Amino acid sequence: MLSRVAENLYWLARYMERAENTARLILVNANLLLDLPRGVSPGWAPLVRIVDGIEAYRESGRKFTERGVTGFLVGDVSNPGSIVSCLSSAREDARTVRDSIPREVWEHVNDLHLYALAHLKGGVLKSERHRHLQTVIQGAQTFTGMLEGTMNTGLGHAFLCTGRYLERADMTSRIVNVRSEPLLQDEGIEGLRPFENIQWMSVLKSLTAYQMYRLRMRMRVNQAAVLQFLVLDEEFPRALLYCVNAAEAQISRLPEPDDTLRVIARVKRQLRESRLQRVTVDSLGGYIDALQAGLAEVHDALVAAYFDPDITTD
Amino acid sequence: MPDLLHGYDPGACWDELLRGDGRARPGAASLMTYLASLDPDELLVRQDAADLAIKAMGITFTVYHQEEGSIDRAWPLDIIPRVLSAREWSRIHKGLEQRVRALNCFIDDIYHDRRIVADGWFPGGYIDDNSNYRAECQGVSPPLGVWAHVCGSDLVRDADGTVYVLEDNLRVPSGVAYMLENRKVIKRVFPELFERSTILPVDDYPSQLFDTLAALSPRPADYPEVVVLTPGIYNSAYFEHTHLAQQMGCELVEGRDLVVGDDDCVYLRTVAGLTRVDVIYRRVDDQFIDPEVFREDSMLGVRGLMRAWKAGNVALANAPGAGVADDKLVYTYVPDMIRYYLGEKPLLPNVPSWRCADAEARAYVLDNLHDLVVKPVNESGGYGMLIGPASTRAERDEFAARVRRRPRDYIAQPTLALSTTPTLVGNRIEPRHVDLRPFILSSDRCQITTGGLTRVAMRKGSLIVNSSQGGGSKDTWVVSAARGVR
User: Fold this and answer.
1) Measured between alpha carbons, how far is B207 from B93 in angstroms, rounded to an integer?
2) ipTM of the complex
């Protein structure tokens, strides 16, 4: 398999997963809106930081308002991280690997991209936001389902899945990170304490994780248990450890995977050894940043091993 | 006279299917009888079926559009085939073979001793100011002495029935995949026709192309690794690149998939490491294939490719620099090349041409612009031409100025009355002008497509057949007289 084809398949899956999770990220914040008392609104600026978009945001000349941030994250074609841009990139990748994926998958990606282009403002209006983001999420889920249902499970499939799980791990960590940000503009307000657990419930719901959380954890929502679930669960498919395990299984199907597997093993150790009980709202950000750095190293290892290997011609 | 053809009038043009008296030409009889038996609605149904099949099979070509970027368009195919008798084709076949043999001798000579210049048959100055001449190729000896492995020569027929060679495309000629797909579609929508006539098959082309390329391998002992190098998805012929790669069972690669090692060999980057490449069927223009030698800003090429080629470690088809004979001024010398290198009489004539570089010819051209077609020597795709009879005064003045400024860059030809062939237009059959592009393969032996790609100008009276400018296409039949012909 050509390195370029492998890389494009990997990125195709990453971009689709990123589009889905960006939609989920916006939903967390939007759900908070509904649960908070009158007069208190969540800040939207942290979302931009969480997706590493501060610089692009400043360049866009927008203000850090709800309208500005949702517009930027959903339909801004000049923001490479927006949902529409992710879907464009996914479409470009799919187009170059049309021979390697089932025809229906290509058509689906193409359709979803056209839908996003036709609804650039879909995430801005409150009345349409939920439905629009759900359409994106379901579109991405359909993509994943079609691949699992119709594609040969050879090398190409392994690269797709690797991309999907690494991106999902990364984005889940970012979504968890939403909670570590001073989301509430009026932090000083005493009356907000009771809402803390509600905010964690929003995080769960935006990851479609609330029901699964109840089934697995069998306890009411609190920070430590939610973190335990979203970071270390081995059965919930959006939990970090689950994703890293899944990526590991896929990478072990690739030719000469040892170098990459070593990096994965390090990330897993990092996950397992963490003392989640001791993580506070203040230290959560640093913990998540370290995990994301680990995931980036896995990506670098894939690039070095498969996508852009050092050339030795002996 | 079939109803569908009622009022069909090609005027003074030669018609490919019908003679002046309305009877079918050799080979076309059973097709014409069959068309006559169809009612007009049936023909429209078949055309719709063909259009649908083209969409379903994903046969597209890419047009670059200012606002929308590049768009994939369905390939335009007219369902009424164009017919050539096997007898006429065999004559054309011999002429093409002779022509390409001479062209390859010429290119090899130009990049070595230039005997043809020394012997006074060809002006050496036309090489040095030829924008397709590559000084970097001087002295290189590609395998088998062949430079143009795939040549697409455009043929046209004038009112008296003479077939002329209009131009030779020796750089990266395209269209052959459409020839193959046209046949598949017509077989699908007109299966009964194939029972009535002996239509020679065309499907062999991908295997012939593979054999042509494989014969160039620098490691003849091993099964050769042949790849197709494409500029990528935005190229207008991307569909053809994927098609040929699939049919030959080769990897379709882009420049970044290849790398030249310290050993001056070319390698394919795969997830399992590097794999040596023997032959590259490159569909990227010369100037873009190697940023080390040609355009530095090229993202489409492979750094070091020319080094590897010169060292004989990889074969490139077509060889860089082969386009030197693509120049239309050089074209005017092809009949002389045939005489000079092969000592033979040219079997296929050139369209008579005036070289604007000659003062006398230039004076004639400038006086007769309204009757002539003036062509830049270096364009393809039908761009930048002046069609005298269809031009305005202002256009002619502008062209005259251009010709005076750079006479070397223009040739002129009489406006040929291109032949016509019955074509479905709306719900009627009308005459439309056509040309023919056969593809000639050369390496250890010469092989030619059976027929080729027929392009048709869909607008009434238009002579522009290029698909980028609204042209359509037809399935091209070479019909054997063995049976089925009345």
Assistant:
1) 19
2) 0.73
